[in-house]
Amino acid sequence: MPVEIELKLRLDPRHVARLRKHPLLKRGVHHVSRKLYTIYYDTPDLELWRAGIALRLRRTGTRWIQTIKGGGSVVAGLHQRDEFETEVAAPFPDVGAIGGALAEHFASLKLRARLKPLFVTEFTRARWTLAPAPGVEIEASIDRGVIKCGDATEPICELELEVKSGPPWRACQAAMQLLKAAPLLVEDRSKADRGIALFLRHSRAPCKAPPSPIAAQMTSNDAFKALVQSCLAHYIANQHGMLEDDDPEYLHQMRVALRRLRSVVDTFSPLFPAAALQAPDAETHWLALELGNARDWDVFATESLAPAAAGRRRPAGMATIAQSAARLHRDARRAARHAAASARAQGLLLALGGWLSAETWSIALDDAQRIRLQQPVAQFARTVLDASSRRVNKRGRHLQLLAPRELHRLRIAIKKLRYATDFFAALYPRNHVKPYLARLAVLQQILGLINDAATVPRLLEAVASSGILRREALDIILRQNASLCARLLKRLPHAWQQFRRVRHFW
């Protein structure tokens, strides 16, 4: 069965003309633009969609083409799915014309009877055939139009790069070239996914990290790829919400995804030559820093300023602090959105997608490294968990005497152990992992709150420098923050002892 390999990127309509002038498109063969009308079918309870399948009927001229898509994966906007396409006589599903592995999903007569049109797309497609290298053919399409579901609509303006021949990473390479001409956003949702969201009448909520994709039969190389893919999916699933919505959870989840991604690179680094992982690590570090300031202000606004402002006795100057903090908060959020939508950040996502697809790191491996990467991941997991656990125990010695800087180092070590535990948990019995993970999470939470409290004086200094503020109001916030920090430090030894008593699960 044919496999569709397609990269999707969201495009601002204001930049379409500039993109069309890019030399890569200019050198391609430009085809006549076409108007496309597509009807998407499913059951009222979305049985096909829940099985990862899309069924559509598309009118091209006087012909109707039925297409079934399903399975596959999405990595940094690069969609790879099984596709079965055939011409039909009318704009109604012809399940008898469905072949290949996807046919079994339509064997049920009950399902066939419940199929109905859910939404339609209407758009104009400008199309080019690109040949960026010998043996490589990419179809580039700019689609502009609308998705309609009843009286609800959503605009379409996107670039699609479909690899007709050649390796999938070529689509990422072409997108990185086009990114120099116009802003593009990596898109993890198909038109079908967006239409389903319109049908359900809900916007995309913030997405938490998915369960670890590691399985016992995987090699270390397979596990590394699966984890990086999972982290990229987690990041991109929150990207559009962060750019368009003020809910701070989108930004928080993007930062979690970046921390997890950097932890994957750090965890698996002993298996690679030193230079193999430097580029992705450096760029993800840059992006994490760009988003970090906005996250600090999110925490300050909700956990430090709001409780102080809500006290019974509201001192003079608190309103001024709140106004100044709100302005700095808005500035930080604006800067974070600018960084996330920048060519540098989107180029990073595309580079990582191409890097994973091509497995570029394999070029620099010696024979011993190749052997280690092909060994079962369970062997490597025990080595990692042992080393991470020893590091935490070393950092936590004489806990009550640790200075703030040493507590910060302990927090980082615990975070790395927590991520390693999350990554490899599926390799061990759940009832063995659960108590260990629960006590580790308590430690991480306490130390994380202490770290958040440590940022408050710096943020208050920024607020104070932006205008004349009353000392009394500043002191109230600082006293509340110091009191919180003292309570957390008091809880820490007990949490540490509880963690030390729990048995290792590996």
Mean pLDDT: 90
- Rg is 26 Å
Sheet/helix structural class: alpha+beta
Strand neighbour order, sheet with most strands: 1-5-4-3-2-6-7-8
The shape, in one word, is: globular
Tell me the distance between the termini: 41 Å
Count of DSSP strands: 9
Amount of beta strand: 15-25%
Q: What can be said about the biggest beta sheet? A: 8 strands, antiparallel, barrel
Q: Which oligomerization state do the chains in this entry correspond to?
A: single chain
Helix-residue proportion = 40-55%
Q: Which series of helices and strands comes N to C?
A: EHHEHEEEHEEEHEHHHHHHHHHHH
Q: Helical stretch count?
A: 16
What would your notes on this structure say?
The chain has 506 residues and is of the alpha+beta class. It is 54% helix and 20% strand. It has helices at 16-20, 23-26, 47-50, 109-114, 169-178, 191-200, 220-244, 248-268, 278-309, 318-341, 343-358, 367-373, 377-395, 404-424, 430-465, 471-501; strands at 3-11, 29-42, 53-60, 63-75, 78-88, 116-130, 137-149, 152-165, 184-186. Strands 1-5-4-3-2-6-7-8 form an eight-stranded antiparallel β-barrel. Strand 6 (116-130) and strand 7 form a beta hairpin. The mean pLDDT is 90.
